Protein: Urea ABC transporter ATP-binding protein UrtD
Amino acid sequence: MTTAHTHEPNSVPRPGGNAGMESQYLEIRDLVVDFGGFRAIDGVDLTLFQGDLRFLIGPNGAGKTTLIDAITGLVPATGDITKSGTQLLGLKPHQINRAGVGRTFQTPSVFDNLTVTQNLDIAGGAGRSFWNRLRARHGIPEIVEQALETTGLTHHRDRPAGILAHGQKKWLEIGMLLVQDAKVLLLDEPVAGMNHEERVETGELLRRLGGERTVVVVEHDMEFMRNYATSVTVMAAGKVLSEGSVAEVQNDPRVQEVYLGTSNVGTED
Ligand SMILES: Nc1ncnc2c1ncn2[C@@H]1O[C@H](COP(=O)(O)OP(=O)(O)OP(=O)(O)O)[C@@H](O)[C@H]1O
Structure:
């Protein structure tokens, strides 16, 4: 694995991360989530470095969303989840968010009646005194301008979010995470319901983000995974079944077996 210390801003992230061991990371050890008597996450270990664009795949019910829920404090779990050494397990969702870990949900959750900029403003902390001071001094904060630019929504900044196309709403959600300065982005099916063009644009966006952050993508779209993943974790029945490059997991017989016993990892959905 190459651990270069510098990289071009828009370079393609390398598997395992662009930034090196001393940069930010998310480490999960022996994670367990029980729902009553049912063990949805069963001893998961996962290490993600800054620069990873990690795809999390697996059959329905494998535990992918539950894993993200556990990382973001939405379901109780045991084990360890540390971000660059800070224990996240046991923190409340807003504290985890403030620690730099942000997520999106399968269904976009933006304020339809507010403009794109207002949504970003609220995500950044409008109403909180420091944000209001920032705004009073500088107008639209630079971080909002950057998020508009990164997500390609600059020309839609004054439109109500409710009239955006589906893909644009999903990009706005990602922009909201950028405004919060999330260093770890957990995205649940970011291209579900998108057309081909939107998928390509989203892939490029994730690639840009993955260069400097840690991006985890839960996805059923295997073509999208093959095009953009720097690394892949395959889950099944609450455990990590396989991990590695796209080629490595596609060639793993255990992975082929859970995908309907065929070698067609890539035909689901
Ligand atoms: N709140 C809950 N209470 C009980 N069981 C749950 C709960 N949430 C999820 N489960 C179960 O945990 C298992 C893992 O679900 P999860 O949604 O994490 O899977 P997934 O891999 O994200 O699946 P999909 O690809 O279909 O979204 C499933 O069997 C699901 O029914």
